[in-house]
Write a structure and sequence with these properties.
elongated, seven-stranded mixed β-sheet, alpha/beta, 15% strand
Length: 400
């Protein structure tokens, strides 16, 4: 082990005996009492020395025997120490690709804040290279999401869409102006290649889709390490027509539910951005649950959807550039958190924000007991009671 203090956290003395690691409250820690000699010793925890050399350096500084091991134990329990040589064979292979590591050092530093065990952060980063994610939609949201995931080290990012790039598809970080007139999927795939730190790893062997039990018991990054080349770890549904993200057609997700593939919705409808829900088949609410819950509250919902979905739109849909960029960033963040096994903040929840306030808030999406997806099989909700409650909230229901 070559201990290194997590570089993402700045440190400073609060007083003569107390040191603070980190600035922002989300990850800041205060340790004490700590003497100045120990504080000076911390500068040696830079990942270039193993434990024997660190003990020797401590003796030269006049620190007592056993002090180094005790200090490292305390720092490790506080989650402040990483291992510059840890993470296993996949991490070692990534370190040898110095150009790739240089591109992703900021990502690695951020991952270290979410990793309690030394070497876990680089292991997760290396595991991303073996993952396969599909983005369905290559408009202002989908293309940006695909480029962010590729740039963050996801090894295989596929993009599916039809038609050709239109001027209103262009967005910073997404489809460039020079791609206007090209096939959307081809232009987005080129964008993915340009965004990636290196070429994706070659597939070792085909892998069948994950079972529901595996999806629930093991995070995608661990599965990718175990299998070498994972199947579809996640599908992000980011349609150019925001209605298909706000009120997705359950029929379009049937294959994903059958295969047990996690999928995450995102898009912009009029002046509102939506991210979620993240659907874990059989465990959390799906598009069918979303429709049934809304229809329970608003009996006219199905009729309204049929009208909105019928025919071809005769105008360019509203899609505020700042809002679409915000949506893309949030959905990419939730996707990476899920892939890394760090968070499932979008499961069973839809995040919404509208212009001009951009105030993100979460709306819970509960499984519906009548939905064939099975996620609501144990639900105790009284659907009739929901409908009665909806009568009192009709104006709010119609608005959102």
């Amino acid at each position: 082990m070559h201990p290194i203090l997590k570089p993402a956290l700045r440190r400073g003395w609060r007083d003569m005996n107390t040191m603070q690691f980190g600035v922002a409250p989300a990850h800041a820690l205060v340790l004490g009492p700590m003497d100045t000699a120990t504080g000076s010793f911390l500068t040696l925890l830079d990942g270039t020395r193993g434990l024997p050399l660190l003990r020797e350096e401590a003796r030269r500084m006049g620190l007592p025997d056993g002090h180094v091991d005790k200090l490292l134990g305390e720092l490790s329990r506080a989650g402040l120490v990483d291992d510059a040589t840890g993470g296993g064979p996949a991490a070692d292979a990534l370190r040898r690709r110095s150009g790739v590591m240089d591109r992703q050092r900021s990502d690695l530093a951020s991952l270290s804040l979410l990793s309690s065990e030394p070497g876990e952060a680089v292991e997760r980063l290396a595991a991303r290279r073996a993952m396969r994610v599909r983005v369905q939609g290559a408009g202002r949201v989908g293309a940006v999401v695909a480029s962010v995931l590729a740039g963050a080290g996801v090894g295989r990012v596929e993009v599916l869409d039809g038609g050709h790039v239109e001027p209103w598809d262009v967005a910073p970080g997404g489809q460039p102006a020079e791609a206007i007139g090209e096939r959307r999927d081809m232009a987005a795939r080129r964008l993915v290649r340009q965004s990636a730190p290196d070429r994706p790893p070659r597939a070792n062997r085909p892998v069948s889709p994950r079972s529901q039990a595996a999806a629930a018991s093991r995070p995608p990054w661990q599965e990718a390490v175990a299998e070498g080349q994972a199947g579809l770890s996640l599908v992000i549904i980011a349609p150019r027509d925001g209605l298909d993200a706000y009120a997705p057609d359950p029929v379009h997700a049937e294959d994903l539910l059958t295969a047990g593939t996690p999928h995450l919705y995102a898009g912009v409808i009029e002046g509102t951005g939506v991210v979620g829900p993240l659907v874990l088949p059989g465990a959390t609410a799906c598009a069918g649950c979303l429709f049934r819950r809304r229809a329970d509250r608003d009996p006219t919902w199905g009729r309204m959807l049929a009208q909105w979905r019928s025919g071809r739109a005769r105008h360019v849909p509203a899609c505020d550039l700042a809002l679409s960029t915000s949506v893309a960033g949030l959905v990419a963040g939730h996707a990476l958190a899920f892939l890394d096994g760090a968070s499932m903040a979008a499961s069973g929840v839809r995040w919404e924000a509208a212009v001009p306030g951009f105030d993100w808030h979460a709306r819970p999406i509960w499984p519906h007991p009548a939905c064939p997806c099975g996620a609501g099989a144990d639900a105790k909700t009284d659907v009739k009671g929901d409908r009665l409650t909806a009568q009192k909230e009709r104006h709010a229901t119609m608005a959102g």
